[in-house]
Amino acid sequence: MEKKKITNIEVKRKNRNDVFRYICKNAMVSNPDISYALKISLPTATQITKELIEEGFVEEKGALESTGGRRAKALAVSENVGKAIGLDITKNHISLVLTDLTGEILKYERIFLPYVAEDAYYREVNDKLETFLEQNRCSEQKILGLGISFPGIIDLDKKLVTYSHVLGVKALPFDFVSRFFAYPCHFLNDANAGAYAEGIQSESMERFFYLSLSNTVGGAVYSTHGLEQGKNFRCGEVGHMTIVPDGESCYCGKRGCLDAYCCAKCLTEGKLEDFFERLEKGEQEAVQLWDRYTTYLAIAVNNIHMVLDCDIVLGGYVGSSMGEHIQDIRDKVAERNTFAEGSSFVKTCCHKTGAAALGASLKIVELFIEQV
Fold it and tell me: Residue 41: how many CB atoms within 10 A of its CB?
């Protein structure tokens, strides 16, 4: 098979994207910083940033501190470029996040709004969104796009939410939802969005598995190339892998699924913060629930690690709330692990609040960067 040749235009386009992405990610940089980090020549870096400044994407912010010799010009993303919105839809709430191109969260809000598959619901979501933007003095012209996170299978080819057991919808077209909003929309699965938030801002570009432990259990694989989707866009759907044959009933209609043993509601119907407070106090019921929960979770984590051989990041409501109690899970995983590697590969998520909404917003940022 003949290897595809990369044209000079494609190389220039990639360099340009990489430079702008680097500036966005690092907030304040110099041309020498860019040259060194991206392994491109200083004249190439300087020419690219010159073009980006002329086009209004980047601006000079004075000079950086001298490390010897002439002080380098400080470069940053222009404040006039725009902002991105993330919207996470769940069974009982919506979460909204506004970010700039550096990925900084400018505003976050979680609103009680039970899902209903009707026009009126989406109109109300749009009303909440517009109020959210108005309160933050962000005009429509400043918005680059809206990332929408759904708890369901997102088919990017067919442009459908294939199905969501949680929301009770099947074959929901993207355009049925996007028509209610004034911005370009991009759709993500909620676990994928959480994984994207963890991965796209990570200093390490290593592959990892994101295990979302919320009112439902989901998962996603993130690598240097971004999210791994799978043939049917179901890569990482571990919530419905069998943990106990013919075990507890799952909302999907099957029995013994991981979701039936490790969703947040297995610990409490109330606030997880209250549950972990009771656990800290050593209340017997909380201790017993946590022991049962971590036993099944350890089985799942160990199985995932055996298949993928990568770090496992625990996210969602439980992963965000467990704190030092992650050691209980690590200990049980280590007991099951065949190899003498300990369990340091089990980690808690970096983004504790609104991870899915943030990931949806950051996807909009990345799509914009790719077009610059």
Answer: 10
